[in-house]
Design goal:
heterodimer; A: about 100 residues; mainly alpha; 2 domains; flat; B: about 230 residues; globular
Amino acid sequence: MTLFQISIYVGLMMFASISTRFLPFIFFPENKPLPQWVQFVSDRLPYASLGMILVYALKDVSLSISESFPTIISLLWITVIHLRYKQTLLSISTAVFLYLILVN
Amino acid sequence: MKLKALKSAFPITLPVFTGYLFLGIGYGILMNKSGLSLPLTIVMSSLVFTGAMQFAAIPLFLSSFNPVSVFILAMMVNLRHLFYGISLLPKYKNLGLKKFFMIFTLSDETFSINVASKIKDDINPAWFYFFVSLLDYLYWNSASIIGFLLASKIPNNIKGIDFVLTALFYVLFLNQWEVKQNRTYLLLGLVCTTFALVLVGKTQFLLVAMLLLFACILVDYRRAKV
C-alpha cells in the first residue's frame, strides 16, 4: 500500500476509536443534569460491562475440558483466595503463576 | 496531593503493566516482522490505542486497499467504548483538561479499574483516575516501541502471561460481587454476552451483547418507573 492509503487507514481507525470514546460525553455534557433514564442506565452499566469484559477476555478459551483446564483451575483458585484474603495483587499474581505452570 | 494519588494508583496498574508489556512487545515484534515501520507502530499505539484493532490491522495493511471494510471493522471493535463512556459519566465529571486525556485513553483495563476501584477517602479521585489512565497508556506505548526495536533479540515470549488481564477482570468482578445489589447486573452482563457469543460467534457478538444488555436495562427502567 502507498503511504497515502496507509494514512487513510490510520485516519479511519483513529476516527473509530476517538468517536466511540467521546460520543457519550458529547451527548451528555457535564454542565447539564443527566436525563433520568441515562442516570438509571449509567448506574447499572458498569456492572453489566464488567460481566461483558470478562466473557470478552475468555472468548478464545477452548470448549474442550483438557485445553481449558488451566483457565478453569486458575479462575477457581482466584475465587477461593480472593474471597478469603481480598488482596487483589495476591490473587492475581498467584493465579498467573499457577496458570503458567499449568500451561507450560 | 498528586503524588499521593499516583502512589495509590500505581499498585493496581501492575497487572496491566505485566499484561501490556507482554502484549505490547508482541505487537511491536509483529509489526517489525511484517515489514511495517516504527513510525506506523508509534502512531497506531499512541493515536489509535486499541489493542484488538491494532493486531487486526496488521494483515489489513498488507492486503489490498479496502477502506470501507476497515472502517466497519474498527467501529465494531470499538463500539464497547460507548458502554464505558456511559458508565463513567458520573465519575468523569468536573475534571478539567485531564478529562480529555482520560477519555482519549479509555481502555478495557483502565475502565475496569476506574469504575470498580474503591478510592480511599484521603485520595483525590480525579487524580487517581488520571494516573491509572496515564500509566496504562504509557505501558502500552513503551512496550510496543520496545517490541519493535528489539524484535530480533527477544526470544519467544513465555506463553500465557496475558492471562494476567483476565485475572484482573475477574478479581474486579469479584470485588463488585461483594455488594449484593450489583449481582443482578454482573450476572446480566455474563449471561447476555455468553448468549450472544454462542448465537453469532466471536466476530460480532459484542454488538449483539450490547444491544441485549441495553434493552434489558431499559426494560428494567420502565418497570422501575411504573
